Amino acid sequence: MTKSELIEILSQKQMQLAYKDVELAVKTMLEHMGNTLANGERIEIRGFGSFSLHYRPPRVGRNPKTGDSVKLDAKYVPHFKPGKEMRERVNNSMKKVEISD
Amino acid sequence: MALTKAELAERLFEELGLNKREAKEIVEMFFKEIRGALENGQQVKLSGFGNFDLRDKKERPGRNPKTGQEIPITARRVVTFRPGQKLKAKVEAYAGTHQQ
């Protein structure tokens, strides 16, 4: 499922809102979630999961083309931890459906 | 303070002028639909944000950390999140203390 498919489904189910409003709502939510993480704050969605940042210490990497070593700064990467309900529901689906795009 | 569904709904109310009930509903549905797709074995791709992928894991040997007793970790399906380029770039710049 892609973002536009998600918007499509939501606008079919939410009758009061026009497609454009749903589209804007989805974009606003994702934008705000991204900004929250960029500010170093967590996101906690009950029944779904939580997003936080994980620290990656500085390291020496290599340029795969030239073989030269390059210093890489410490950084943060987004991390998602599925909530209990998400874990259980997804796991239960293993016996019923195959994974698809 | 962590971002919650209530705060996301508040945003939609303030920024887009949705009424509070609509805002709450759409936030609720947004996460429910994503979870629903994953429950149906469907991967979810939100461009600019990231992908929620599914992986089937085989049974593997495990151990009860308390007793040291060997017990197999059963086969299972798990969700993994792969952040997109845009989100990664946004977050990389965060210069906070690493006491997350």
Explain this structure to me?
With about 100 residues, chain A is an alpha+beta fold. Chain A has a three-stranded antiparallel β-sheet with strand order 1-2-5. The termini of chain A are close together. In chain B, the strands form two sheets. A three-stranded antiparallel β-sheet of chain B has the order 1-2-5. In chain B, a hairpin with a 6-residue loop joins strand 3 and strand 4. In chain B, helix 1 packs across helix 2. The longest helix of chain B is centred in the N-terminal third of the chain and has 20 residues. The interface between A and B is large, with 65 and 59 residues.
Largest sheet of chain A: 3 strands, antiparallel
Q: How large is the count of helical segments of chain B? A: 3
Structural class of chain A: alpha+beta
Number of strands of chain A: 5
Measured distance between first and last alpha carbons of chain A: 7 Å
Write down the overall mean pLDDT of chain B. 93
Strand content of chain B: 25-35%
Low-confidence stretches of chain B: none
**Integer average pLDDT of chain A:** 94
Q: Largest chain-chain contact?
A: A-B, 65 and 59 residues
Instruction: Kindly state the number of beta strands of chain B.
Output: 5
User: How would you write the strand order of the largest sheet of chain A?
Assistant: 1-2-5
